[in-house]
Amino acid sequence: MPNTATSYQLALQQLTDSALPTGAFAHSLGFETYIDRGLVRDEASFSTWLSAFVGQQLTYSDGLAIRFLYDGTPVEELESLLTAQLLPRQLREASTKMGGRLLEIGAEVFPSAAVEAYRALVRDGRADGHQPLAFAVVARSLGVPFEEALSAYLFATMTSLTQNAVRAIPLGQNAGQRVLRKAHDDVAAAVGRILHLGWDDFGALSPGLEISQMRHERQRARMFMS
Questions:
Q1: Measuring CA to CA, which residue among 122, 86, 79 is closest to residue 102?
Q2: Which fold has domain 27-216?
């Protein structure tokens, strides 16, 4: 039998694998609007956007939600707060669509009482099933320590966005890997920041990112759902 650490590490790799069928390949989370405006057009400009995204939206929204859940805040409370702060409609829908798929996978592949209880809340309409919370519930039920879970979630999100940028800009495969290598430092900085943020910081997002996500809904031509 594998030891506990090995068990959760393998499970965490599966949860954050880019092949996990959550639909992440269909979402740009706003960077396609920057492509349309000519602001993201190559490796350097996408890397700048990605750094801003993890330093703002992923830090003050998803990342803090994961920390608060690990701290013991009821998932129902975090659900309502996340729904309220995700102002762009497409972003709310992306979060719940990917979260719903993650919950389905988690319930089937990594069943636990905590995952089933959260799934029941979503099924009964008492929760929306946001992606970061779905991930955190599954990861915590597997015994994944908080900082490992948070780092893995942040980097998995950046990986899926980079893979989408490789197709959309387009970038070369090697360029995508260089972007991800640079992102290591951004993830480490985000984790360190999230450890020291409080409730007053929850939802303190960049208006520029939110506006770009709202504009995407009315963009004339697009590859992605968000």
A1: 122
A2: Urease accessory protein UreF (1.10.4190)
Burial of 198 (0-12, 13-18, 19+ CB in 10 A): exposed
Q: Alpha-carbon distance 96 to 121, whole Å?
A: 13
Global confidence as pTM: 0.94
Q: Which of 154, 151, 141, 156 is nearest to 70 (CA)?
A: 141
Sketch the domain layout of the chain as residue ranges.
27-216
Q: What are the tens digits of pLDDT across the range 174-184?
A: 999 999 999 99
Q: Which tens digit of pLDDT belongs to each residue from 127-142?
A: 999 999 999 999 999 9
Q: Mean pLDDT across the chain, nearest whole number? A: 92
Query: Do the Cβ atoms of 176 and 163 come closer than 8 Å?
Result: yes
